Fold this sequence. Notes:
The protein is built from four helices and six strands. Helix 1 runs antiparallel to helix 2. The chain is an alpha/beta fold. The chain has one domain: Barwin-like endoglucanases.
Amino acid sequence: MARVEAVLITGRTVKQGVGLAEGKHSDLYRQETGSVEMSAAAMAELGAAQGDSVIVSTEYGTAVFTCRNADLPDSIVFIPYGPSANRLTGHAAGRSGMPAFKGIGCTVRRDDGG
């Protein structure tokens, strides 16, 4: 099965922020936080197209996302902050008191329903 090894970064998006203002149960919020962005080359390596489901795994957990193309380096994937992203990030906080939300090794593979 094709898979891509990458570095996960998480962060805010405008749509995620607007969706949050509408409520965490709004369609916009759920759609935005349920997506992963990656380069066209990484998507091609997976055999994935825009809108396909992919599984992202880190040492902390696994979650399913809708794939979308973005202008990113091939080795980077981006997920907007939200419940699914939280499954993939660690909870340990360093001296800053904040857990790491960026620079997390991950594996992405197609969700073939199996």
